[in-house]
Amino acid sequence: MSTLHILFLAWGVVTAVLICLVIYRSTLSTREGDQIFLNSSASSIADEQRAIVSKLQKLSAPITALIVISAVLLLVTAGFWLYQGYKSF
């Protein structure tokens, strides 16, 4: 396997994981309520909403990191591809 293939494979894996996390975040956010009006007996719904918000906040850092890693890998791959093309020209 050449270096270019390994870079493309690494970018593909990182991007696939990123897409999975974004889909998971969107499914969580559909269950999140913007406003909920509860009486004192419905505190379990408020606890569920707090758990969902906590999960969404925990996902933001890995998603941001994967976006950066994916972009860097794509740029490195494109640069390496252009370098190989220039070298063989």
Q: Helical residue percent?
A: over 70%
Rounded mean pLDDT is: 88
Poorly predicted residue ranges? none
DSSP summary: helix tally:
2
Radius of gyration: 21 Å
Separation of the first and last Cα atoms: 22 Å
H/E topology pattern = HH
Number of strands: 0
Domain count: the total is 1
Structure classification: mainly alpha
Overall shape: it is: rod-shaped
Beta-strand portion reads: under 5%
User: Mind describing the biggest β-sheet?
Assistant: none
Describe the structure.
The protein is an all-alpha fold and 89 residues long. It has one domain. The protein has 2 helices and no strands.
Layout of strands and helices, then pairs:
Layout (H helix, E strand, L loop, with lengths): L2 H28 L12 H46 L1
Helix pairs in contact: 1-2
Please outline what is shown here.
83% of the residues lie in helices and 0% in strands. It is mostly helical and 89 residues long.
Which characteristics define this entry?
mainly alpha, rod-shaped, 89 residues
